[in-house]
Amino acid sequence: MNTNYSVVCSSHIMLWKYFLAVMLCIAYTNVRAGSLSFSQALQLAEQNAPTLSMQQAEIESARYAAIPAGELPDPKLFAGIDNFPISGPPGFEPGQEPMTMLKIGVMQDIPNTAKRRARVAAAAAAVDRAQVLKAVERLRVRRETALAWIARYTVERKLALFDELYHENRLLAESVNAQQVAGTGTITDTILPREDAAILAERHDELVRDQSAATAKLRRWIGASAEQPLAGEPPVWPISREVLEQRLHQHPELVVFGPMGWMIDAEVREAEAMKKPDWAMEFAYQRRDDNFGDMVSLQFTLDLPLFPGRRQDPQIAARRSERLKVDAEREATLREHTEILEADLAEYEQLVYALQRQQKTLLPLAQEKVDLALAAYRGAGKIDLISVIIVRRELIDARLRAVDLEGQRSQAAARLHFAYGEDLQ
Asked: How many Å is the maximal CA-CA distance in the chain?
């Protein structure tokens, strides 16, 4: 009897443990589903961005257009009358073979092989170009989403400081009241903490405004999910000057020039192929009088490109000029992005040094000034309250500045990463 009771109790305990585990998993899932991490924001942006859907449609369009690129033109059906007399005797003498015939047939134009191969190459390059443009747009969407997420994250970190700042303001007000009771303060000292609290509230309102703007920018890329609370921190990307300089040629705006050049090369080959003759084949069935046999005919035609100097050569020269233009444009873009990379790296390095200086030197010094000023005010009254308020505001500025610098450094790293550090897919 006791053994059975123990077995039943053990079963109940196991069921309760299982139930609690399931409930904890559900609660954890709900918490995670109600938050927005950096990686989740990037995934949502790729799923929701209408520009990516547009680029995908362009890829599909280019693929469909490539299917008939190397095919022969559609055959032509023709029908008519041959050898119908419009002068001479109105009839036919007995035994005379009539010349008038009903004719029906098909005709097929056959462009030369080089021209058809060039068209296939141009169509394939158009597909490659559409795919590269989509990859470029994907990186742009990811970059802008990352910058928007970091901007909101930075603002919310600054907002999170205000609970502590308000608490410090209340402690300052209590200290002032204690000084008044001790008879060491001035009449205006009681006003200054309230004035300082109002200034804090004003700065808080400005940050709330900035938070709304950052959320709206994030909503542009990921939709309604931008309203969810943020979770986690932005990633720390390794920024190496040597690596980024090596990957400069893989910048999205430079990669696009590859398929653009391939398309023009194919157009050059097609223009050169126009010097080679195309030909056509015609087959016809001819119906005559019932007293005479029917006839068939087979005919071939051949183009005669006899004047290339006025027809084909100018088109070839035009396409080659287009190729030179693309090469020059790529070189100009490369030089531009070389300059931009140097400027972005210099900005990133400056922000790294500024953040280190702010965190290790300026922020501790600002805190030390506040501690010394408060000690002097609470002690022998060697300093007035307005001086305490001033150094305290400097400390607040130093704290907010540190958060700002960290956000700017993360955004600078994101720009470098998504321009040079992430592969096109």
From this structure: 147
CB atoms within 10 A of CB 15: 10
Find the helix or strand (DSSP H, E) in which 89 lies.
none
Residue type, 199: I
C-alpha R_g of the chain: 40
Q: For helices 50-66 and 113-160, what crossing angle results, to 10°?
A: 170
Q: What digits encode the pLDDT tens for the residues 271-311?
A: 999 999 999 999 999 988 777 788 999 999 999 988 888 88
CB 416 within 8 A of CB 348: yes
End-to-end CA distance of the chain: 68
Show the DSSP H helices in 305-362 as ranges.
312-357
DSSP structural state of residue 36: B
Q: Which of 331, 154, 336, 339 is nearest to 257 (CA)?
A: 331
Rounded to whole angstroms, the Cα distance separating 165 from 202 reads 13
Which distant-in-sequence residues (6+ apart) come within 8 Å of 412 by Cβ? 344, 347, 348, 351
Coil vs helix vs strand at 181: helix
Distance, CA of 153 to CA of 157 (rounded, Å): 6
pLDDT confidence tier of residue 182, bands split at 50, 70 and 90 = low
Q: Going by DSSP bridges, is the β-strand pair 101-110/76-82 parallel, antiparallel, or unpaired?
A: antiparallel
3-state secondary structure of 238: coil
- Six token digits for residue 180: 């008044």
User: Buried b / exposed e across 89-114, counting CB within 10 Å, b at 16+?
Assistant: eeeeeeeeeeeebebebeeebebbee
In sequence order, which residues have a C-beta less than 8 Å from that of residue 180 and are 6 or more positions away? Answer: 189, 190
- Burial class for 5, CB neighbours closer than 10 Å (0-12, 13-18, 19+): exposed
Interatomic CA distance for residues 370 and 161, integer angstroms: 17
Distance CA(196)–CA(200), nearest Å, equals 6
CA angle centred on 372, ends 371 and 373, rounded to 5°:
95
Residue 181: pLDDT band with limits 50, 70, 90: low
Q: 202: exposed, middle or buried (C-beta count within 10 Å: 0-12, 13-18, 19+)?
A: exposed
Name the amino acid, one letter, at 81: I
* 289-312: burial string, b at 16+ Cβ within 10 Å, e else: eeeeeeeeeeeeeeeeeeeeeeeb
Q: pTM for the full model?
A: 0.78
Residues 6+ apart with CB under 8 A from 76: 106, 107, 108, 109
